[in-house]
Amino acid sequence: MKIINNKYFHMFVRWGLAGHGAIHIIETGFNIYEQAWISAWISAVAGLLMIAGAFVDLSHHNNNTNK
Prior knowledge:
Blueprint: H1 7-33, H2 37-61
């Protein structure tokens, strides 16, 4: 599958993960405000995992082996 090696596809996935993770972090703030502690914890973990995934993919491409 040629699209998997496309740098624009990877950039789209990185931005998508980071944006979705940021939405979850904002959701965490609302959950804390509403004192929904379990939902806040789940949202925070999901958001941090998505943002970490975006950074992992970014660091994967910083070694200049894939263009």
